[in-house]
Specification:
- This protein is an alpha+beta fold.
- The chain is 15% helix and 33% strand.
- The strands form 4 sheets. The chain has a 4-stranded mixed sheet.
- A hairpin with a 6-residue loop joins strand 5 and strand 6.
- The protein is elongated and about 65 Å long.
- The N terminus is likely disordered.
- The structure holds zinc ion.
- Zinc ion binds next to loops.
Amino acid sequence: MRNMTPEEEEIKEEDIIGEVHVTIASDAFSKPITCCSRKTKKATKGMSLKGQKVTYDVWKCGKCEEEYLDSQQAEKLEDIWAIQKFLEGKSPTMERSLNYDGKTYFVRFPKDLTAGWAKQKKEKARLTMLSPDRYLVEVA
Ligand SMILES: [Zn+2]
């Protein structure tokens, strides 16, 4: 995921190589996953994102070639897909007022997005600066 630039360039179809076919393992914590009565082996897969090669790992069955993801691998692939969606301009965006209390700027999240946050104990936001005018906000 290195060398990604936040510039909004048109993504070309040939930038995305190959379809991704994977199965999320039902018991993601028992690694390596067993398939066809044998243990799967870790394999590294690659795809191209705006000309940048990104890699992710899967557990691959040597017999039927089925590929499985454990929870960590699934998380990484989800990140790649999220970035791919963002680069394609397909991520949902929303415009919010930038509020200023005389000291600090803040942004309010719409209520329907934050309905489950108290229950999920969301208490931190991580801001990643993409450029001085663009930020990625992650809540955890
Ligand atoms: Zn198999």
